[in-house]
Amino acid sequence: MPDTMKPNEPETEVEVELDKDDKDAPVDEVAKPPKSKKAKAPAPTASQPLSYQAEQSPSVGRIVHFCIPKAMHGGDDPVHRPAIVSNVRNAKKGIVDLHVFVTKDDYPGNYHPGPLMTADKVGYSESEEDGTWHWPERV
To answer: Is the pTM of this model over 0.85?
Structure first.
């Protein structure tokens, strides 16, 4: 215990920034790494929707939502199902191939081909049009 400390006073760790060339620095001092600032997303342009522009681009394995066409499920309300991007055809335009997870309710009548459906050359749409994909909503 140093001479300047009182018997019941706890020791504190001293943090200082050290130069790389400072070889004579005490061992008890801890070097602090410089703080880094987070990069902000660029402002959206009028030609691209906000959510697509916010530093996201489709890549294989990403989870997205697929809007099942109304003609397929027979309802009036849009049906969104989770999908996994299996191929990126054009990242700038948002054209991808998907494996879509579906349920029996997504098919009219008794026909149900299985839990997965493939959708090829699917375009991105922030307005959630039939037969397009979009990023999952944040909740």
So the answer is: no
Contact 128, 80 (CB under 8 A): yes
Helix (H, G, I), strand (E, B) or coil at 53: helix
Closest CA to 56 of 130, 128, 139, 124: 124
Cα 79 to chain centroid, rounded: 22
Q: Where are the domains of the chain?
A: 58-134
Alpha carbon distance 93, 108 (integer Å):
32
Q: What is the dihedral of CA 117, 122, 126, 130, to 10 degrees?
A: -60
Checking phi first, is residue 127 left (phi over 0); if not, alpha (psi -120 to 50) or beta?
A: alpha
Task: Tell me which of 11 and 119 has the higher pLDDT.
Answer: 119
Strand ranges of the sheet holding 79-90, from the earlier edge strand across to the other edge? 116-122, 95-101, 79-90, 63-68, 133-134
**Torsion region of 32: left, alpha or beta (phi above 0 gives left; psi -120 to 50 gives alpha):** beta
Structure tokens at 18: 């050290």
Residue with tokens 């996994």: 84
Instruction: Tell me what pLDDT residue 62 has.
Output: 97
